[in-house]
Amino acid sequence: MLGLYDSGLGGLTVLAALRAAGITQDVVYFADQAHVPYGERTEPELHGYLRDNLALLGEQHVDAVVMACNTSCAVAQRLGWPAVPFPVLDLIETAGRSFAGTPHRRIAVVATPATVRAGAYGRAIRAAAPHAEVFEIGASALVPLVERGDADTERGRDEVAAVVAQLPPYLDALVYGCTHYPLLDRWFAAGLAPRIERIDPARAQAARTAALIAERDLASGSATTTYYTNGDAAAFERGVRRWTGDLTGRVAALIAR
Ligand code: DGL
């Protein structure tokens, strides 16, 4: 069984990538919606949530945690990863590695303010692609927008346009450095020149997860996901259904803590 967590709905994009890659392990997904948005929180606060969330997933006897929150990874890189008895796949490290051999020279990363402050994406990408220029752009309105259920609205379009307007010229690629942002992909696609590749690190994270499953010979499951939130359970369930399609029979439990 795999554990995933995010501050809210964003990690569903990582879950979708795991399923699209044919990963059938059962998943425990935790949305820490009592503390969303993470992007505006301090590092010590975020580090505390990371510890608590890993412990919570550990109580569910997960074999590994597939990180689905960039902001937590950025903070862990600065303050240290809590010691846990299972592997934890760092999403930012995965994203960085995926740039080895990239032809891209000018790469923008859109992320939460906390992730940008930590500078983790720039470091991770440059470690794999030293020739690359990396521009990290903080966006604070997008996560609350998705959590409110406004991703498909004109407000969503306008907020994304405001972020796109801040991007430097002559980009080769734009990286979604927050797992909520692929849920706004249609608006990014509308605002960016078609030659700019839009990169969702969730795909590389899914490939790394598949490799870990093979390496550790983890038992396959029935692709069942159990969702937990410590926020508004009814709103969360609406979000899960909106973003994962018809999950009838797969939402095994929806428990508020
Ligand atoms: N989706 C998360 C990330 O990838 C955090 C979003 C937030 O709560 O600010 O960073």
Could you characterize the architecture of this molecule?
The chain is of the alpha/beta class and 257 residues long. 42% of the residues lie in helices and 18% in strands. The chain has helices at 12-20, 43-59, 70-79, 91-97, 113-118, 120-128, 142-147, 154-164, 185-191, 202-216, 233-244, and strands at 2-6, 27-31, 64-66, 88-89, 106-111, 133-138, 173-176, 197-199, 225-229, 251-256. The protein has a 6-stranded parallel β-sheet, with helices on both faces. A 4-stranded parallel β-sheet has the order 6-5-7-8, sandwiched between helices. Helix 2 (43-59) crosses helix 3 (70-79). It binds D-glutamic acid.
List segments where confidence is low: pLDDT < 50 over at least 5 consecutive residues. none
CATH C-level class of the largest domain is Alpha Beta
The small-molecule ligands in this entry are: D-glutamic acid
Global structural class: alpha/beta
Strand order of the largest sheet: 4-3-1-2-9-10
Mean pLDDT: 94
Keywords:
binds D-glutamic acid; 11 helices; Rossmann fold; 10 strands; alpha/beta; 2 domains; four-stranded parallel beta sheet; 42% helix
Summarize the structure.
42% of the residues lie in helices and 18% in strands. By secondary structure, it is an alpha/beta fold.
Describe the secondary structure blueprint for this structure.
Layout: E1 2-6, H1 12-20, E2 27-31, H2 43-59, E3 64-66, H3 70-79, E4 88-89, H4 91-97, E5 106-111, H5 113-118, H6 120-128, E6 133-138, H7 142-147, H8 154-164, E7 173-176, H9 185-191, E8 197-199, H10 202-216, E9 225-229, H11 233-244, E10 251-256
Parallel strand pairs: 1-2, 1-3, 2-9, 3-4, 5-6, 5-7, 7-8, 9-10
This protein binds D-glutamic acid.
Residues 6-7, 10, 36-39, 69-71, 112, 115, 143, 178-180 line the site of D-glutamic acid (DGL).
